[in-house]
Amino acid sequence: MREDDGSVPDRTPESTLGSKLSREHVAALALVVTVVASAALLPTLADARPAYEIPVDYQQSSADLSEPSGEAWDSVPAASVPLSSAGASVPAADETSVESVRVEVARTNERLYLRLSWADATTDTSTDEISGFADAVAVQLPANQSERPPIAMGSTSNRVNVWYWSGTGEHEALLAGGPGTTTEIDEPTLRANATHEDGRWTVVFSRSMASDRANVTDVSPNRDMDVALAVWNGSNMERSGRKATSEWYYLALGPDTGGPPYEAILWSVAGLAIVFTTLVTIEGIRRTRGE
Amino acid sequence: MSQSDDSTVDLAEGIDHQVAMVMDLNKCIGCQTCTIACKTNWTESGGREYMYWNNVETKPGSGYPRDWEEMGGGWDESGEERTPGDLPDREDYGRAWDFNHEAIMYEGSDEPLRPLENADWGPNWDEDEGAGEYPNSYYFYLPRICNHCTHPSCVEACPRSAIYKREEDGIVLVDQDRCRGYRYCVEGCPYKKVFYNAETKTSEKCIFCYPRIEGEGPEGEVRPPSCAEDCPPQLRHVGFLDDEDGPIHKLVNEYEVAVRLHPEYRTEPNVYYIPPYAPPQTSEGGETLDAERIPRDYLEELFGPKVNEALNTISRERDRVRRGEESELMEILSTVNNDDQYRLEVFDDA
């Protein structure tokens, strides 16, 4: 819309309308357009990502996604997830050391990939000494997604799956129904690869999206999924409930990866309300002046 | 509680009966036969090489693992909050030493057989050192196994309930399938009688030779734990604390001469000790003095204040025997009949 000189052009659809509207009305209309455009654009800005969202990047091919330093990760947006002590009932549970984990998530049609990276200057990879504990990271998912499970390892009636990687090089799939109940389950499609470079661990988990087995999370490509994370620093004697954990986040797998579907609607409604108020105010002033 | 209704013995909640052991420290000669009997049965290999589920240490002394009494664990004064404990280092238990076998056996070296390096600590490093000055130096031997406590802090310490007291006899066991090697039980046991196996990545401990007491041992007979049966001076009684006709109940609850090691840890051990009564002190000239050789303070430190009355009772009963009177207590303590010492089938028909 042209409005730079404020004149009302002839022989355009707007001219008919414009002949009936004052300059104020034109300005107000411009405002409407700006507001609606903003509603559409805002979610695409990185800093406007909804709280607790972890974006999921769809890729045609798995390429080198399973590698911690794979180039396919270059285009995947990252989320920084803060961690704090889980507060479990084990000695020194509050003495944890890792404060955040960087999370990137990609998927193909077949597999889900999570790349987790966190700062840890020491590579604790052995449990061969009596006081030796290994660095570790875990991803917690609801076993089934009808209701969000309690954050601390779920509950007996609402279980979680845990993908656990240890600095010893092992990884395992676990099922849990509350603290202290983790039990290894057979999950042949779970993989994990790790590197430690420049004082950071980078671990890539991947697993088949679909599962038709009871108590094994079925990852839908069309629906957001809850996820929580935990990191252990072995040299700080972190193990078990002595761990740095996140709150529940969600993987934005659903069709609108820009955020909750109602967001754009809310922005538009708010914008239109502003415009309406402006128009009413302008009209009020005009009438007061007796125009 | 599921114990028999007329029992006066306190057992842990949910436990039918409680195995118990009484060790008479006056009989221990420090030969380590119990240690080796245990080791050959249970801890010879597979990451257990450093473990001694049964050990015999010299007291006063640092013990095994080194300075275990200073590592915390157990319960606070209320008996409800656990006291934080430390994980011992491998060095505290003692690492296996490498010897110069190769040089001597195959390379013709004539140097003496000796450890190559780091031979500066191990189990029994301070054996027979004790304390005190000649001619009144003193020491005694203290055999130790898991106490299969009534209020076990190791059990409470495990966030996975992988370590538990089994219902039928109160033996404390680690479920090897549930254990994930967190080692909170190792920290939590004030006696340091739970051990981490770095090969299996699980914690392990004395099992009170439960296959033997279940009749799955040699010749399919019910037998006491190896440490007891193989002891040359037969210093142990084995049975159930709640067997009120048995010698253990008499020694612990009736005569109160069998006392717990470090009762202040409040885990309520089910291994009890007849405290040592060493010969009295002597003068430089070799005359007997009217003074106890092992300071009572030290014995109190180990066994709590009840050790005083225990020693007094034993002294009194010995005097009775000297006077030619009968003493049930001294008969129990001096029996050579294994049937009296080991009573493990009393509840079999219950």
In short:
Chain A is α+β, with helices and mostly antiparallel strands. Helix content of chain A is 19%, strand content 29%. Chain B has a single domain, classed as Alpha-Beta Plaits.
How would you describe what is shown here?
- Chain B: It comes from Halobaculum saliterrae.
- Chain B: It is found in: Cell envelope.
- Chain B: One of its GO terms (biological process) is anaerobic respiration.
- Chain B: Its main location: other.
- The complex is a heterodimer of chains A (291) and B (350).
- Chain A has 291 residues and is α+β, with helices and mostly antiparallel strands.
- Chain A folds into two domains: 62 residues, no CATH class; 202 residues, Immunoglobulin-like.
- Helix content of chain A is 19%, strand content 29%.
- In chain A, helix 2 runs antiparallel to helix 3.
- The two termini of chain A are 26 Å apart.
- By secondary structure, chain B is an alpha+beta fold.
- Chain B has a single domain, classed as Alpha-Beta Plaits (2-Layer Sandwich), CATH 3.30.70.20.
- Chain B has twelve helices and ten strands.
- A four-stranded mixed β-sheet of chain B has the order 8-1-10-9.
- In chain B, a hairpin with a 4-residue loop joins strand 6 and strand 7.
- The longest helix of chain B has 17 residues.
- The radius of gyration of chain B is 21 Å and the shape is globular.
- Chain B starts with 18 loop residues before the first strand and ends in a 9-residue tail after the last helix.
- Chains A and B meet through loops of A and helix 5 of B.
CA-based gyration radius of chain B: 21 Å
What can be said about the biggest beta sheet of chain A? Answer: 14 strands, mixed
Q: Quick one: which chains have the greatest interface?
A: A-B, 19 and 21 residues
Number of strands of chain A: 14
> Which structural class is indicated by helix and strand composition of chain B?
alpha+beta
Determine the number of helices of chain A (DSSP H or I, runs of at least 4 residues): 3
* Low-confidence residue ranges of chain A: 1-19
Average residue-wise pLDDT of chain B = 95
Shape of chain A: elongated
| CATH architecture field of the largest domain in chain A | Sandwich
Average pLDDT, all residues of chain A? 87
| Percent range for β-strand residues of chain A | 25-35%
General form of chain B: globular
* Residue windows where pLDDT falls under 50 for at least 5 positions of chain B: none
Protein name (chain A): DMSO reductase
GO molecular function (chain A): heme binding; metal ion binding
Pfam families (chain A): EB_dh
InterPro entries (chain A): Cyt-c552/DMSO_Rdtase_haem-bd, DMSO_Rdtase_II_haem_b-bd_su
